[in-house]
Design a protein that fits this description.
The complex is a heterodimer of chains A (721) and B (182).
Chain A: E1 4-10, E2 19-25, E3 28-34, H1 46-49, H2 52-55, E4 65-67, E5 76-78, H3 81-99, E6 104-108, H4 115-125, H5 140-150, E7 156-157, E8 169-173, H6 177-180, H7 185-193, E9 199-203, E10 216-218, H8 225-238, H9 244-250, E11 251-252, H10 254-261, H11 266-273, H12 277-289, E12 293-297, H13 307-320, E13 330-331, H14 343-346, H15 354-358, H16 376-384, E14 392-396, H17 400-403, H18 407-415, E15 419-424, E16 436-439, E17 448-451, E18 457-461, H19 474-485, H20 495-502, H21 510-516, E19 518-520, E20 549-550, H22 554-559, H23 578-583, E21 586-592, H24 606-609, E22 616-619, H25 621-626, E23 634-639, E24 642-650, E25 658-662, H26 674-677, E26 703-709
Parallel strand pairs in A: 6-14, 8-9, 8-12, 9-10, 11-20, 14-15, 15-16, 21-25, 22-24
Antiparallel strand pairs in A: 1-2, 2-3, 4-5, 4-16, 7-13, 17-18, 18-19, 21-26, 23-24, 23-26
Helix pairs in contact in A: 3-19, 4-19, 5-13, 8-11, 8-12, 8-13, 11-12, 16-18
Chain B: E1 5-8, H1 18-27, E2 48-56, E3 62-69, H2 78-82, E4 88-90, E5 97-99, H3 109-113, E6 120-121, E7 127-128, H4 134-138, H5 144-148, E8 154-157, H6 159-181
Classes of the chains: A alpha/beta (721), B alpha+beta (182).
């Protein structure tokens, strides 16, 4: 007899969050689709739907492995879970005993629902060098800018209309939330909310699909976002279009901001950003007068050496227009009854000694960055120089060889780590550098609790099928490692007990939650205008030192940084490095994102690979003609760091001086270094600084390059010297 | 009559290709296949998306569209008329164009006459066409592609409903143009 079951779960193919229905027959998945009754209304993207092809994929890791050849040689031996976990924990204890907790680092890639386990593991070890992946170039600069201005780290676009209004003006700033957001669940909310919007302003160097629907498209020179925001602030303040009541009552430092933007005229902003000043003025007027409004801010703002200031400048636009906490503007949502799931690691913050945080790599310089996060570029430089205090890395997912600046330098740094253990679903190029490799379950094979960026709901990830071989869930692996290294902080016998613990504030157990599928605070349960209540501060106010939105940040002032937003010219450009631009005459933008890839993932799935065989570099047809390049030609893109090849896509939607390179393309089918050196955009990016003074981020988005056709006898890639 | 037709809005489409993969899940998923990516993958697509543009006017207004091409389920389908083996036929209720693969000999005459280039052929040379997820429609569900589309660019409905939707958009745009000029 056939038994057909339909299971509700949550997709985690990006950071995740879309509700899914998984049909199984006799324990085999036969269908996968969006759940029409979930907040994502039945929609799913190509990545999520192609998840099915992970299940029986030939290249999935089945067993824990230990390296038997030289590092990176690819010789492995199958070992037991006990041996793998004991080796990792023995190494950790050894290094902690010999050098202290900061010698041990545990890190991860993108936020795939196990962030809280990674953070708790680091804190239970007591290391001040826990996470050194990409946080400083992805999301944390925005979080920390929110924190320094508003006193809390999260404000989200109110696409939901729970307060009776939808955004009338929407700005999509360096963002393609509609196709390539890390939190895919927000795409459908954004697109549906456009029905209610009168104005859509798109700020992007490229004419993306959504620009056809825009009221105004500001084609910005890559890396100059803060100049645009300062120019818009100049208009709004000079023309008296700001929200006087909100500014008077609820902001601190408006006079100092006024002074700062006084010289930032639209004409000056035009000169820097290449956007006609009429458009800058029009955008400013629309945003200030057509309210409510919200701004969706993208990761490219973080991947610059003035990232925190990019955040501050754009957030100041929200504050002076009063687009904070009112329905249809930007809101900080309250979590459901479970409380914020990050309490799972925050509750043991005190286990990391102050001195260990203070001596964390980069912490003294980059005080605005969350303590406990080591700066990747510094770590890797110290490793290359053979004087890094970090001796071992436990890495769960992610791949520095794709995510971080200057891939060849990343590789050389990683070679010098004494011990590396990596958990992944596939033998990634980072796994190939490891001493121990652990096989991880896919979300279709996993039970866990998923929480997401806007924080107003949590969902159940429900296991539909068994993982291949001995692959195990992320939660199980973290619990087992945690128990071995710091048992007092990992007291649970089973994963289920650990999940029960995380749900305790909602007074439910995992087995109940599994059935419920979701716990949410939506609709009337979400309060607006929280600064007028006791929620953040007794008697009302924002949770900052002054109780107000700090346009002039007292926190940044105390840390010794510029308390106001400022503009800084990209580290490589026609203006900052005119000599270099003679040899490398084009602007290199590495922001090319593909809706069906998530960083280096999914190019190994047939359904995804059929959509695009090879990565594409977008070149303006005029520029291509000058270089004798035709559509479909293989092209070298070369920067002072090295060169990669991609296929030319002649695209009229960019400035002829800009080329947009596709990021993170991984050739899973190739052997060795060809996988990550052939077309990976970060081979071109610069790890040598300058760095953002407050968070340590580096310029990945606005550099210089030259392009030329690949010749038949050229090598596939340039090897690491 | 419960005729169904499909409308893919080239202006709303974001070129994310979720519809193509949703179609694969529905029509090409074999749970027991062992998979690995190959460098030059070949597979069957019942649906593809073609970009148009961008065209940018001197004011910076962008016109760009993405046209989804699959079987249009023509009322007077040239493929049905040309097929010498009567392998292509209409579902009597919803007027969806369907293929009887036992009758198809793979002569590809349908490909000669299809104005949209919609016919695809399996490795055995048999014609496959989008069947508009007729089984899902019969269960009262949306087609796989319409259900998954975040941009709401795909609508499967009666021709009258689609016409009404388009008229509504035209009315709104004329009203907007009128408001701007006044």
């Amino acid at each position: 007899m056939q038994s057909t079951q339909v299971l509700k779960s949550t997709c985690v193919s990006c950071h995740g969050g879309c509700g899914v229905l998984v049909t199984t027959e006799n324990g085999v998945i036969t269908y996968l689709e969006g759940d029409p009754d979930s907040p994502t209304k039945g929609t799913m993207c190509a990545k999520g739907l192609a998840s099915l092809q992970n299940i029986n994929h030939t290249n999935r890791l089945h067993y824990p492995l230990k390296r038997v050849g030289k590092r990176g040689e690819g010789k492995w031996e199958r070992i037991s879970w006990d041996e793998a976990l004991d080796t990792i924990s023995d190494k950790a204890r050894h290094y902690i005993k010999k050098y202290g907790p900061n010698a041990v680092s545990n890190s991860q890639g993108t936020g795939r629902g196990y962030v809280r386990y990674t953070a708790r593991l680091g804190k239970s070890i007591g290391t001040g060098n826990a996470n050194w992946g990409s946080a400083h170039i992805c999301f944390f600069p925005r979080l920390q800018a929110f924190f320094s201005m508003f006193g809390f780290p999260r404000l989200y676009c109110d696409y939901h209309g729970w307060g009776g209004e939808f955004p009338k003006t929407q700005i999509s700033w360096a963002k393609q939330i509609e196709i390539s957001n890390a939190d895919g669940e927000m795409g459908v909310w954004f697109l549906d909310s456009l029905k209610h919007a009168e104005n859509l302003i798109v700020i992007d160097p490229r004419a993306t699909a959504i620009t056809s629907r825009a009221t105004l498209w500001l084609q910005i020179r890559p890396g100059t976002d803060a100049a645009l925001a300062l120019g818009m602030l100049n208009v709004i303040i000079n023309e008296g279009l700001y929200d006087k009541e909100f500014v008077d009552k609820w902001t601190h430092g408006f006079d100092k901001l006024t002074e700062r933007v006084r010289d930032f005229t639209p004409a000056k902003a035009e000169e820097i950003t290449w956007i006609p000043k009429e458009k800058i003025i029009e955008a400013a007027r629309i945003f200030a007068t057509q309210k409510p409004g919200c701004i969706q801010m993208g990761e490219p703002l973080d991947a610059m050496h003035n990232s925190h200031s990019n955040g501050l400048a754009i957030m100041a636009l929200l504050a002076v227009t009063g687009n904070v906490e009112r329905p249809g503007s930007m809101v900080s949502w309250l979590p459901p009854e479970s409380g914020p799931l990050e309490d799972f690691h925050m509750e043991i913050n005190e286990n990391v000694l102050r001195e260990n945080l203070e001596s964390g790599i980069g912490h003294q310089e980059y005080r605005l960055m969350t303590p406990g996060f080591a700066n990747a570029e510094k770590v890797l430089k110290q490793l290359r120089e053979g004087k890094c205090p970090i001796k071992m890395l436990y890495q769960h997912g992610g791949n520095f060889l794709f995510s971080n600046a200057n891939t060849k330098n990343v590789y050389k740094g990683l070679l010098n780590l004494e011990f590396i253990a990596v958990a992944d679903q596939y033998m990634s190029t980072l796994c190939e550098m490891a001493d121990i490799v652990l096989p991880v379950a896919h979300w279709l094979e996993d039970d866990d609790i998923w929480d997401f960026h806007p924080r107003f709901l949590i969902r159940a990830i429900n296991k539909a099928v068994d993982p291949p071989g001995e692959a195990r869930s992320s939660a199980w692996i973290y619990l087992e490692i945690g128990k071995r290294i710091a048992p007092e902080y990992w007291p649970w016998k089973t994963v289920e007990e650990m999940l029960d613990y995380q749900l305790r504030k909602a007074k439910i157990k995992w087995k109940d939650f599994k059935e419920m599928g979701m716990l949410a605070r939506m609709g009337e349960d979400q309060p607006y205008y929280k600064y007028k209540t006791d929620i953040w501060r007794k008697g009302g106010g924002f949770p900052t030192k002054t109780g107000k939105v700090e346009l002039y940040s007292t926190m940044l002032e105390e840390m010794g940084y510029d308390p106001l937003p400022y503009y800084e010219e990209p580290s490589e450009s026609y203006y900052s490095t005119p000599e270099l631009s003679k040899e490398y005459p084009l602007i290199l933008n590495t922001g090319g994102r593909i809706p069906y890839h998530f960083h280096s993932q999914y190019t190994n799935l047939p359904w995804i690979r059929e959509l695009q065989n090879y990565p594409r570099v977008q070149i303006h047809p005029d520029t291509a003609r000058q270089h004798g390049i035709k559509e479909g030609d293989w092209v070298w893109i070369e920067s002072p760091r090295g060169r990669i090849r991609q296929v030319a896509n002649l695209f009229g939607g960019i400035d002829p001086r800009v080329v947009v390179v596709q990021a993170s393309f991984c050739y899973w089918e190739k052997e060795g270094h060809a996988r990550f050196l052939t077309s990976n955009a970060n081979v071109l990016t610069d790890d040598a600084g300058p760095y953002d003074p407050a968070v340590g981020s580096v310029n990945l988005r606005a550099l210089l390059c030259k392009i030329y056709k690949v010749k038949d006898d050229d090598p596939l890639y340039d090897p690491i010297e | 009559m419960n005729r169904k037709s499909v409308f893919r809005d080239p202006q709303l489409c974001m070129d994310c290709k979720a519809c193509i993969v949703a179609c694969k899940v529905k029509n090409a998923w074999s749970p027991h296949d062992r998979l690995e990516a190959v460098a030059e993958p070949k597979d069957l697509n019942l649906l593809w998306i073609y970009p148009n543009g961008p065209v940018i006017d001197p004011k910076g207004k962008v016109t760009q569209s993405f046209v989804g091409i699959a079987c249009m389920h023509c009322e007077k389908a040239p493929c049905i008329e040309v097929c010498p083996y009567s392998a292509i036929y209409k579902d009597p209720e919803m007027k969806i164009t369907l293929v009887d693969e036992n009758r198809c000999v793979g002569c590809m005459a349908c490909l000669w006459v299809c104005p949209f280039g919609a016919p695809s052929f399996t490795e055995n040379g048999k014609l496959v066409l989008c069947d508009l997820c007729i089984d899902r429609l019969r269960e009262g569900k949306k087609t796989a592609c319409e259900a998954t589309c975040q941009a709401r660019a795909i609508v499967v409905a009666s021709p009258e409903e689609i016409a009404k939707r388009q008229s509504k958009k035209a009315v709104e745009s004329i009203a907007r143009a009128g408001a701007e000029s006044s």
